[in-house]
């Protein structure tokens, strides 16, 4: 935590004598201004009095030898000095008041701050003012009112988390970073080793959260592809590159997209990672895609056990579209600048699209998937899939109908017959998402906040999240509720430690 003094350019770490330095500077400033102003005003008086008083012998102004000055000169010099001192007094008083207010603000802010950091990492910023929170996650899980109350108090504080630059610094020394985060100490069972998984992480900001997601899903025999947005900040890019350099089974996608909301570029980002994952030496069984606000609800051991029960089928949403949703792919869309949140999104035009190629019936779902290796192998070389991808390029949010449609195409490995019932977000275990218009009916109310109708979870939902049965959930934000993510990490760590290797 840095404090700034009243003097421009002076920076003090917490605990340095801020006020002592400030007072001495103000006193020196007043003395200097008195001397300069007195000299200037005396010279001005000489010029004004030349016509009546005759020539003067100029001596050092305001010195002890100023007895040759006329009484009128002495009065005028004294008047100017008095006025200047009055102004300097008001200036110094105002400056001191501003500094005192700044100190009070900093004191209150620091007192009400909570530093949010992954387990095992402590940045220099946090070492200056370490305000860690003491929370019992087991009690939060049991919905203990006292512990839930503590979690709510923490949520109201100023949340200070690691930034991208901190992750860059922490990952600069790979050995220290891996040791601090225990990446090499993850318990792995024989069942897990024989069933490796692949991950596609499409992210664009918040490197500390990306690292926490990676840490929560990490196993040394799995393979991880990270796709970062070409528009991401240099610090974020450096942070994720450092992460990839520190672990042999983590890599950056070979082809990067400038991802726009609801645009084909979002789908292409996953496809780029999938293409790279297929070329990797790891013979993974399933590929899973995640974004920067997802978090796992199952340990790798639990996930493998449930994936084995799929017997090669896929897990993702696939439903028949409503008339409103059909508008997304019945008309051509153009990427345009818009005066709100995303700035560039696909906008519907009046041009109707032709029917999908090969007689494909379009289904809708979400961007999230869990796909078998056989399914991915097949679609990577399918002409039907290639044509459908090209047809989807000018639709709205094609990632939300591309995968949902492919899984219904007859002949693809693990396909779902078109006649089968809709696979909704509650049936598909890929992602647990709370929509505000369904709260109170399908699931309890959100205890965090909402973003575009989606709940950003709060700590009181820990038990519900872990018991619902889904594999991953969305959305999480440490600045909305840091306790929940901490407790999820703790619960996943407990599950990991219970695995028999």
Describe the structure.
This protein has 501 residues and is α/β, with parallel strands linked by helices. Among the domains are: 2-111, no CATH class; 323-406, no CATH class. Helices cover 45% and strands 13% of the residues. The chain is built from 18 helices and 15 strands. The protein has helices at residues 18-53, 71-111, 124-128, 137-141, 145-156, 164-170, 174-181, 190-193, 207-217, 234-246, 264-279, 300-308, 323-330, 373-380, 383-391, 399-406, 462-468, 482-497; strands at residues 2-4, 11-13, 113-116, 158-161, 197-203, 223-228, 250-252, 286-291, 294-296, 331-337, 344-352, 370-372, 449-451, 454-456, 472-474. Strands 7-6-5-8-12 form a five-stranded mixed β-sheet, sandwiched between helices. Strands 1-2 form a two-stranded antiparallel ribbon. The protein has a two-stranded parallel ribbon with strand order 3-4. Strand 1 (2-4) and strand 2 form a beta hairpin.
In short:
The chain is an alpha/beta fold and 501 residues long.
Which helices and strands, and how do they pair?
Blueprint lengths: L1 E3 L6 E3 L4 H36 L17 H41 L1 E4 L7 H5 L8 H5 L3 H12 L1 E4 L2 H7 L3 H8 L8 H4 L3 E7 L3 H11 L5 E6 L5 H13 L3 E3 L11 H16 L6 E6 L2 E3 L3 H9 L14 H8 E7 L6 E9 L17 E3 H8 L2 H9 L7 H8 L42 E3 L2 E3 L5 H7 L3 E3 L7 H16 L4
Parallel strand pairs: 3-4, 5-6, 5-8, 6-7
Antiparallel strand pairs: 1-2, 8-12, 9-15, 10-11, 13-14
Helix pairs in contact: 1-2, 6-10, 7-10
GO cellular component, one term: Golgi membrane
Subcellular location: Golgi apparatus membrane
Membrane topology: Single-pass type II membrane protein
């Amino acid at each position: 935590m840095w404090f700034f003094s009243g003097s421009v350019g002076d920076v003090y770490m917490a605990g340095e004598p801020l006020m002592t330095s400030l007072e001495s500077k103000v006193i020196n400033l007043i003395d200097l201004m008195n001397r300069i102003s007195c000299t200037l005003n005396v010279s001005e008086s000489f010029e004004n009095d030349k016509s009546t008083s005759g020539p003067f012998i100029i001596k050092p102004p305001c010195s002890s030898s100023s007895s040759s000055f006329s009484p009128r000169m002495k009065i005028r010099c004294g008047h100017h000095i008095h006025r200047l001192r009055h102004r300097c007094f008001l200036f110094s008083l105002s400056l001191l008041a501003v500094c005192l207010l700044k100190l009070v603000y900093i004191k209150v802010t620091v007192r009400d701050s909570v530093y949010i950091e992954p387990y095992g990492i402590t940045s220099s910023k946090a070492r200056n003012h370490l305000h860690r929170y003491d929370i019992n996650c087991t009690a939060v899980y049991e919905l203990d009112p006292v512990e839930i109350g503590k979690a709510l108090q923490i949520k109201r504080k100023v949340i200070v988390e690691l930034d991208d630059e901190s992750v860059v610094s922490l990952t600069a020394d790979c050995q220290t970073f891996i040791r601090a985060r225990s990446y090499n100490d993850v318990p792995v069972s024989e069942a897990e080793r024989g069933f490796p998984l692949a991950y596609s992480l499409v992210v664009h900001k918040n490197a500390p959260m990306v690292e926490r997601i990676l840490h929560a899903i990490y196993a040394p025999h799995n393979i991880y592809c990270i796709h970062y947005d070409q528009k991401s900040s240099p610090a974020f890019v450096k942070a994720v590159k450092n992460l990839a350099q520190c672990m042999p089974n983590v890599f950056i996608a070979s082809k990067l997209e400038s991802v726009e909301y609801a645009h084909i570029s979002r789908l292409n980002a996953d496809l780029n990672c999938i293409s790279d994952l297929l070329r990797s030496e790891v013979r993974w069984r399933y590929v899973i895609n995640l974004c920067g606000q997802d978090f796992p609800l199952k340990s790798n051991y639990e996930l493998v056990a449930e994936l084995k029960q799929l017997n090669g089928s896929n897990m993702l949403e696939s439903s028949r579209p409503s008339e409103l949703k059909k508008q997304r792919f019945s008309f051509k869309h153009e990427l345009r600048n818009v005066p709100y949140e995303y700035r560039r999104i696909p906008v519907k035009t009046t041009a109707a699209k032709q029917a999908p190629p090969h007689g494909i019936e379009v289904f809708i779902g979400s961007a999230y998937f869990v796909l078998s290796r056989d399914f991915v192998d097949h679609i990577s070389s399918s002409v039907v899939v290639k044509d459908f991808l090209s047809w989807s390029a000018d639709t709205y949010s094609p990632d939300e109908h591309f995968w949902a449609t492919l899984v219904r195409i007859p002949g693809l490995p693990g396909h779902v017959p078109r006649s089968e019932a809709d696979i909704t977000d509650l049936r598909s275990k890929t992602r647990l998402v709370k929509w505000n218009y369904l709260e109170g009916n399908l699931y309890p109310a959100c205890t965090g906040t909402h973003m575009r109708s989606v709940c950003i979870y709060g700590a009181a939902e820990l038990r519900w999240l872990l018991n619902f049965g889904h594999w991953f959930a969305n959305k999480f934000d440490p600045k909305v509720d840091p306790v929940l993510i901490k407790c999820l990490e703790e619960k996943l760590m407990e599950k990991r430690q219970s695995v028999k290797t």
